[in-house]
Write a structure and sequence with these properties.
about 1250 residues; two-stranded antiparallel sheet; 53 helices; 2 strands; about 0% strand
Length: about 1250
């Protein structure tokens, strides 16, 4: 399809016309066909030929050139899709076709060449699209790879031999203008050098045409110039722009060119000519658009000339250029105030560029790379500027002129801001391009070496004019001039502080002198902005501030906010503050927020003195009621959240139900303005755009609610209780934000009974790992819910009913939780499960009063188990796995809570036991391999079972996990593993080892029968398992209760090993049966009988662990109230929920790390619930220790009795003598005392 046949062109034209039809059945197939053709070679060339064919109808030619432009823009150099990139041959043909059509265009728009007529480029339709195509190609090809284009355009300009520019030549001038503009935008050094090579030939060709037209315009009188047709000014504009492009971009150092100074002077004279015409007939700007464009272009390129070719301005005279700019500002702002702002902006930019040029203010350096002509031009420019400033009062007077003309507001502008304060919230009095350019000019005027004089002038005016002026607003002219002076002061903040003229304390003292005079709201907003400017510079690295200065600053901000914060907030619209008062209060938020960041509340007492914190929160709440724009609402919420979220605030802010209703109203207002999925933005663009600010309001409301919930944390100095109003608001927000208000409400008074098992096909259908696609709002709502579950009071637990079930339903829907959101939801599930588990344990231990229960855990038991197994099978991230282990631990403890077992519930119980067994097998195997190899083997996650059902648990038929291959070890190696396994190998393992142990402890205590059966079904001997657990014991530093539970797990394993010994030696007499009465199958890998010295080694290690536990219990008793190891999760979770810890809700670290003591549920050590009930419910570890040593004493007595009755030739267990020697040598006095108190003589 390189050139295309006639039939192919006809079909393409038909497709082009079909692509713009309104009928979708016709349009969509045509669009798809065009997308397919774009990947084929030759499409752009065929489209261009259709455009160049005069016999084609105009609409098809337009469609062809537009699509050709788009294809060339996308595929001339396509790095993202190289297969679509145009081939070199097609590129060459396109460039040749463009040159041909420009050189020999058709004579008319309707046909080709006829009767030998010569065509004109003016007959080419859609010249704008053609120009864009040429510019795009020049981006990569001009000038080195496409010299024919430059030669053609220069040749066409050389044909222009008169002062009048024809329409045809005007087209070529416009095309060359676009080419050079594209060339000037290139920043590569090679491209810049190519541009410099174009300068001499272009300046000769273009300069001749440009000077010829200039001479004609200069010779014409002003009267005739004002009556010229707009076409003349169109040609003048393109010629001026072309000439400026050549001079600014096509010469590296224009001042070194022989005609550089003369050309620059001619440019300035052309600017003066345009200004004279404009002043003679001011209405010409509105009547002739090309004249206006010519003036704007001349000013713009003069700015570029000063910036890029500054030394050549010596030929113009810097002083004359500056005088012209200042006079033009005077003319625009006074004589003709309706001049468009962007025209004035270019004038101000020109003034700013003159004062920002280093060479105009300082002499050139001795080792400068300037030529001799350049050095002379630089010195001359400096002299010219100095002479102008001396003759006109210095730089301060220049600044005063700009200040009076551009920064002094008028009555309309001031009232517009005060009546609509939210429109100018980003700046004290709004902003515009002209105002920004004036501020930059004033800042540049204060550059060295003029900074000292300008700063001194401003300080003198502040201490003189400002303090003596009437700021009440009776004389508006004085008021507006003082406002402009304060604006200038803010612009010079850095220099004022650097020179020691006005420090922050000086500024505060100045404001204190002004406030008692009751200044106009306009001045009050400016003063607030000044404080913000001074604080903005200090925010990254704030300097220390004394309490007195901070207190005075806070009093000033409070005084500014008093306009809308009386002692009793207005409750009716008639009492609402005026818009001017709202503007002042809004302005006070900016410095207040900066103070919160730079000088935190917990470091300065000034914040809480005189109820300042309460006053500022009230100000934010009242403003939140008044403002309507998203940005203003967000700023109010941000300040409120910052005030409430500090960790060590002693001051409290009481919020009423009306305030919470206000939050809910704002929340619902934002919800109505967004679609159901609009609160899931993947990224935030411009923070000041309307849509993005609306998207930020709802997360800000959630942040404020989280800060309020934080106040219920008992670790606070003065904690508050979670109020019912706050709880209801939080649950409503979570219902709308996390679950979607249209689905269901968490605030329903009646909750349907949860189903026995929620379907899991939707959530578990994929085998891919979860990806982090959760939104910030969803995660923030989940964190709020987590915070609520951890501080909710016992009588408020009923309000949470339905949350558990609906969270699980949401996860199993079409939009499951993923990423960090899933981590937070897992924490919420753990907290909600813990509420039911604690209530159940309290009932079994007969503790009164019993805590409330949700009674939802049995209903979601099967669904949670499915979710846990799915995550373990597919998610490799540790945060997921650790939380799943904790959730499984709670599910194990919840087994007795299930109703009478049905077939489904039996399958769920068997699935849970199988899952824990699989984890246990992997844990033991990985631990053994870690202790016997230099590199630990990572513990694999269990996968869904796929094998044939096998009898395993209580004779039931379940699907076991894939069998593990037993390691090949010799007998000596086995003995070393059993007797010599130390903590080093385990410590090299992953954190999941530590997270798994509490699960195994709970499993062994709550399901002792299944645990014994599991030991018999494992490929390792019981002594190997005990050795691994003993080696892991030293990983646990505290608390004592968890270490005691771990030793219980070890003891259960040794009891099972002892019982297995009697199963294999039934003829031996024994008197005690401590192990369960079941009969597991013997190990198929290791013989259950082991040498006595292995038993002695394990018992020695067990006694050492007991001694370590007792010693560290006494030494660290005072530390048991601090945050314990992650392995004591259940106890920590209970304490966190009761005391308000927020481990995953992004609260201050001091809150997360604190954990106090709580007198709570204390069950009997040997009562129902076992040792894990002690770990969960007791702050006293004595009952758990007594239970453990009583059980240990019984085990040792049974072991001693078995050793007495064994035959010498079949000796497996230690003898009585060996056992007694072991106790004498390795049992510490504390251990002996504990065993003696437990009945071991």
């Amino acid at each position: 399809m390189m050139e295309g046949t006639a039939d192919q062109r006809a079909m393409l034209i038909q497709t082009l016309n079909a692509s713009i039809q309104q009928d979708g059945n016709i349009r969509k197939p045509a669009e798809q066909e065009l997308q397919r053709l774009e990947g084929m070679a030759g499409l752009a060339l065929v489209l261009f030929h259709i455009y160049a064919d005069g016999s084609v109808d105009p609409k098809s030619r337009w469609l062809a050139i537009v699509l050709c432009k788009n294809v060339i823009y996308r595929n001339w150099q396509n790095r993202h899709a190289p297969s679509h990139q145009l081939q070199d041959g097609e590129k060459q043909q396109l460039k040749q076709s463009i040159v041909t059509i420009l050189q020999e265009p058709p004579p008319t728009a309707a046909g080709g060449l006829q009767n030998g007529q010569k065509g004109s480029v003016t007959h080419l339709p859609h010249i704008v699209e053609l120009s864009l195509i040429i510019r795009r190609i020049c981006r990569f090809e001009f000038p080195s790879k496409w010299p024919q284009l430059g030669q053609l355009l220069i040749a066409k300009l050389n044909e222009c031999d008169s002062s009048e520019i024809s329409d045809e030549h005007c087209v070529y001038i416009a095309l060359l203008h676009g080419v050079l503009k594209e060339q000037g935008s290139k920043r590569l050094i090679m491209s810049r050098r190519e541009s410099f090579q174009l300068g001499p030939p272009l300046v000769e060709c273009v300069g001749r045409v440009w000077m010829r037209q200039n001479e004609a315009l200069q010779q014409a009188g002003e009267a005739s110039l004002t009556n010229l047709p707009d076409g003349v000014w169109k040609a003048s504009r393109y010629l001026d722009g072309l000439m400026y492009l050549v001079l600014t971009h096509c010469f590296e150092k224009l001042h070194d060119h022989a005609a550089g100074g003369q050309l620059a002077l001619l440019m300035y004279q052309k600017l003066l000519l345009l200004i004279r015409v404009w002043k003679h007939r001011p209405a010409i700007l509105a009547s002739q658009q090309w004249f206006f464009k010519n003036v704007k272009s001349a000013l713009k390129w003069m700015c570029y000339l000063v910036e890029g070719q500054c030394y050549v301005v010596a030929a113009i005279n810097v002083g004359d250029l500056l005088r012209t700019a200042l006079e033009l500002v005077q003319f625009c702002r006074v004589t003709q105030p309706d001049v468009p702002d962007h025209l004035v902006r270019h004038i101000l930019i020109l003034i700013g560029n003159i004062f920002s040029c280093h060479s105009y203010r300082f002499p050139p350096a001795e080792r400068s790379q300037l030529s001799e002509a350049g050095m002379a031009a630089a010195a001359k420019c400096k002299e010219q500027l100095q002479a102008f400033l001396q003759a006109n009062g210095g730089p301060a007077q220049i600044g005063e002129a700009i200040l009076d003309r551009c920064l002094v507001l008028n009555a309309h502008e001031a009232s517009e801001y005060l009546d609509e304060p939210e429109e100018g919230i980003r700046e004290a009095h709004g902003t515009s391009e002209t105002r920004n350019a004036a501020e930059r000019a004033l800042t540049n005027i204060a550059n060295a070496p003029f900074d000292e004089s300008v700063v001194s002038h401003v300080v003198q005016r502040l201490r003189g004019d400002l303090l003596q002026a009437d700021l009440s607003g009776r004389d508006e002219s004085v008021l507006f001039r003082m406002d402009a002076l304060l604006c200038w002061t803010g612009l010079l903040e850095a220099k004022l502080q650097a020179m020691g003229k006005i420090s922050f304390r000086d500024l505060i003292q100045l404001v204190l002198q002004l406030l008692p005079r009751q200044p106009h709201p306009l001045i009050q907003t400016r003063l607030a902005n000044l404080i913000k400017v001074w604080l903005s510079e200090a925010t990254p690295s704030p300097a220390p501030m004394d309490e007195s200065t901070l207190g005075t600053t806070l009093d000033i901000i409070a005084a500014l906010a008093q306009a809308i914060t009386p002692q009793h907030a207005p409750q009716t619209p008639q009492q609402a503050p005026s818009p001017a008062a709202t503007a002042v209060a809004l302005a006070s938020l900016a410095p207040l927020r900066l103070l919160l960041v730079a000088y935190p509340l917990d470091n300065y007492e000034a914040w809480v003195q005189g109820d300042r914190q309460k006053l500022f929160v009230s100000t934010g709440l009242n403003l939140l009621r008044l403002v309507r724009s998203p940005e203003a609402q967000w700023r109010c919420l941000a300040v409120i959240q910052k005030l409430l979220s500090e960790a060590s605030i002693t001051g409290r802010t009481d919020l009423s139900k009306a305030h919470f209703d206000q939050f809910l109203a704002l929340w619902r207002q934002q919800q109505q303005q967004q679609t159901p999925h609009d609160h899931h933005p993947s990224s935030v663009g411009d923070p000041h755009s309307q849509a993005d600010m609306q998207a930020m309001i709802r997360p800000a409301i959630v942040d404020v609610l989280k800060s309020l919930v934080t106040m219920a944390c008992p670790s606070k100095d003065s904690p508050t209780l979670l109020s019912d109003e706050l709880l209801a608001t939080c649950l409503q927000v979570v219902s709308d934000g996390l679950l979607g208000g249209s689905r269901s409400s968490l605030m329903s008074s009646t909750v349907k009974p949860p189903p026995s098992s929620i379907p899991t096909q939707a959530a578990l259908s994929t085998t891919n790992p979860p990806v982090d696609g959760s939104s910030a709002l969803d995660e923030s709502c989940a964190q709020l819910l987590l915070a609520v579950t951890r501080v909710v009071q016992d009588h408020q637990v009923s309000s949470l009913k339905g949350v558990f079930t609906r969270l699980v339903q949401q996860h199993l829907s079409e939009r499951p939780f993923t990423g960090s959101l899933l981590e937070t939801v897992l924490d919420v599930w753990i907290e909600l499960s813990l509420i039911d588990v604690l209530a159940f344990l309290s009932h079994r231990c007969q503790v009164t009063p019993q805590p409330s229960a949700l009674e939802e855990l049995p209903g979601v038991f099967g669904s949670l188990l499915d979710v846990c197994t799915h995550i373990l099978a597919h998610a490799r991230e540790e945060p997921y796995e650790e939380r799943v282990y904790r959730l499984l631990q709670l599910l194990v403890m919840a087994l007795p809570m299930l109703p009478s077992p049905s077939q489904t519930q039996q399958q769920q119980q068997q699935k849970l036991h199988l899952c824990v067994l699989s984890l246990y097998q992997h844990f033991i195997k990985a631990a053994i391999q870690a202790g016997t190899s230099p590199t630990p083997t990572p513990m694999p996650s269990p996968h869904p079972p796929t094998q044939t059902p096998t009898p395993l648990l209580n004779g039931s038929t379940v699907r076991p996990p894939p069998p593990l291959q037993p390691p090949r070890r010799s007998g000596d190696d086995r003995e070393r593993v059993v007797a010599g396994l130390k903590v080093g190998g385990i410590a090299r393992g992953e954190r999941r080892y530590a997270a798994l142990v509490p699960l195994f402890v709970t499993w062994s205590q709550s399901c002792s029968t299944e645990y014994g059966e599991a030991l018999g079904a494992m490929e390792f001997s019981r002594l190997e398992v005990a050795a691994v657990l003993l080696a892991c014991f030293r990983l646990f530093q505290r608390p004592t209760l968890l270490r005691c539970g771990k030793l219980q797990l070890i003891l259960s394993t040794l009891l099972s090993a002892h019982h297995q010994h009697h199963q294999h030696h039934p003829h031996q007499h024994h008197q005690q049966h401590l192990a369960p009465t079941h009969h597991p199958a013997p190990s198929t890998f290791l013989c259950p009988s082991s040498p006595p010295h292995l038993w002695l080694a394990l018992l020695q290690e067990l006694l050492a662990c007991c001694a370590t536990m007792l010693e560290q219990r006494d030494a660290n008793r005072a530390k048991d109230s601090q945050q314990s190891n992650i392995m004591n999760f259940l106890r920590n979770a209970m304490e966190s929920r009761r005391q308000g810890g927020f481990s995953t809700s992004r609260l201050p670290r001091s809150v997360r790390q604190q954990r106090g003591t709580r007198a709570g549920l204390v069950g009997q050590a040997d009562g129902q619930g076992g040792v894990m009930a002690q770990i969960l419910t007791s702050d006293d570890d004595a009952p758990a220790l007594q239970a453990f040593f009583r059980r240990l004493a019984e085990f040792l007595k049974a072991l001693l009795s078995s050793g007495q009755h064994q035959q010498h030739q079949h000796q497996v267990l230690p003898s009585c003598q060996d056992f007694q020697a072991l106790l004498d040598a390795h049992a510490t006095p504390q251990v002996k005392q504990a065993l003696s108190a437990s009945g071991l003589a």
